Amino acid sequence: MLNPDQARALAEEYFNGARDFDEATEVGLWGFEDGYVGWACEPEPHDPSVLPEVVGGGCVIIDKATGELEIRPLLAPDIVAEQWPGRRPR
């Protein structure tokens, strides 16, 4: 079973890859019964009238039992968790 620290490490590796530490994007993590939802937290713009550099995005579900990642659309974490069908046996 994955704990929150292990899940955060997987999410940070997924979203930040080989970026330098000082260039890394902050990662949000929300836990639910079967796993965790992770997403990249983009900084808020200083000027709200300026369009963001990145539009849209995704998040990942990290299976608590296996550590497998599944890419999902970027919605509220509780909605993403609710829509996840669960672990699929191989």
Give the topology:
Layout: H1 4-16, E1 26-32, E2 35-41, E3 58-63, E4 69-73, H2 77-83
Antiparallel strand pairs: 1-2, 2-3, 3-4
Write a structural description:
Helices cover 22% and strands 28% of the residues. The protein is α+β, with helices and mostly antiparallel strands. The chain has one domain. It has a 4-stranded antiparallel β-sheet with strand order 1-2-3-4, with helices on both faces. β3 and β4 form a beta hairpin.
What distinguishing features does this structure have?
2 helices, alpha+beta, four-stranded antiparallel sheet, 90 residues
Number of strands: 4
Mean pLDDT: 87
Q: Please state roughly what percent of the residues sit in beta strands, choosing from under 5%, 5-15%, 15-25%, 25-35%, 35-45% or over 45%.
A: 25-35%
Helix- and strand-based class?
alpha+beta
Task: Supply the number of helical segments.
Answer: 2
Gross morphology: globular
N- to C-terminal distance: 18 Å
Radius of gyration: 14 Å
Order of strands, main sheet, comes to 1-2-3-4
What letter string, H or E per element, gives the SSE order?
HEEEEH
Main pleated sheet? 4 strands, antiparallel
Q: How many domains?
A: 1
Query: Helical proportion?
Result: 10-25%
* Uncertain regions spanning at least 5 consecutive residues: none
Task: Describe this structure in a few short sentences.
This protein has 90 residues and is of the alpha+beta class.
